[in-house]
Task: inverse folding
DNA sequence: CACAATACAATTTTTGTATTTTGTTACTTG
DNA sequence: CAAGTAACAAAATACAAAAATTGTATTGTG
């Protein structure tokens, strides 16, 4: 886990990120990245097997940041309902902020979400795991009723996907809509359901690749 | 509301649909449609102002079919919870079936969903209205607790978007996943929340363009 | 005069080609 | 041998010319 700024992989990623922010993902190529670092482009291929791997790594980094953001709420000491609500709201705002502050990186992320279902499946799995932890804690604390934790975590993820999926967030933003009120309402509904308890999967709950 | 097969507009739409099914939306042009009807292409322009209008009308027809499908559950005489569950499940299965049986028309629909937020907003509005009717009935019957109907209907729509939005349904299908179990679980959660009641909007609930 | 065909201008798509970019390999250098 | 360069083949991209498609205006016909 060494994340020195001198790790060549990280330096490449940071340079790439900088170029993408300035000129966009479409106009950034491997030669440019190498040039910005004072190297020949083939030096890059010592550390990444392809251009796609560089771009994927940037998207993966974004996902990791979000997972870290979410993780804070899993570890926090507060009622599960509060943590769940705060987690989802934070992720939503993070996506919105990224769209506004860093549109080129958002566009890259959005593209990769569309063409790399496997990366998304991993991300969804990780996030669902975090949700599961909060739900389990909520049950342990007596806040929530009984439930099939895996099914419930997947259901919570699905119910909030529309507030976190970059394509939906972007569509809402372009239409000039604020999704936060809707998010709060869905949260009210879901928390009501969780408190009522007896949540079971309709069958074995599969993994879902969306998000 | 005359829908004779002899209405020229309908005949054009049916011909277009047939060609799209056979050769795909990309390879179907106005000249082809006219040719298939034994007309010159300019005759088509007596009835449609542009090619886009033809394609949009096909998507709108699909939306109307779904709205009709949903409407049956609004009018049915059964507990609101049952009707709500059946409505959402039916819409989900309808999208899945379309994807499997009519992939070219599904692709066209998916494309239009992406590039015509206004059409989608209308569709979402109509569907949300239907959901609202069921919710109102549920409250009247004493099945559900009190709620801000507009906010609740929007929240239900948002929570199930992932099971009905063509992009999500397609992504799940491509990954070989069945979404029905997840849908049932979300439904359990949402119904729990609706029964518990006291659902309010976080603020004034805006219209949402997704779906 | 209603309706359809033809002719035509404006776009858009396709095709073939030149250029750039990617990714590999063989070769330097400290 | 770790890190990099230079040279090169393969693939992707950009571009310009040709072809088609779209949409409109004009003309023809029952």
Result:
């Amino acid at each position: 886990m060494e994340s020195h700024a001198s790790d060549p992989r990280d330096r490449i990623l940071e340079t790439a990120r900088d170029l993408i922010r300035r000129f966009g993902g479409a106009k950034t190529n491997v030669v440019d990245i190498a040039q910005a670092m004072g190297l020949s482009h083939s030096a890059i291929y010592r550390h990444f097997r392809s251009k796609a791997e560089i771009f994927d790594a940037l998207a993966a980094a974004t996902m990791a940041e979000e997972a870290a953001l979410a993780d804070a709420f899993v570890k926090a000491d507060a009622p599960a309902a509060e943590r769940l609500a705060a987690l989802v709201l934070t992720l939503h705002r993070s996506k919105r902020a990224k769209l506004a502050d860093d549109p080129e990186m958002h566009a890259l992320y959005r593209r990769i979400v569309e063409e790399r279902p496997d990366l998304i499946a991993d991300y969804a799995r990780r996030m669902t795991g975090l949700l599961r932890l909060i739900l389990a804690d909520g049950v342990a604390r007596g806040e929530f009723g009984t439930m099939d934790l895996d099914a419930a975590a997947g259901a919570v993820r699905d119910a909030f996907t529309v507030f976190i999926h970059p394509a939906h967030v972007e569509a809402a933003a372009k239409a000039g809509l604020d999704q936060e009120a809707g998010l709060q309402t869905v949260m009210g509904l879901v928390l009501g359901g969780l408190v009522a308890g007896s949540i079971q999967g309709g069958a074995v709950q599969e993994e879902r690749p969306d998000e």
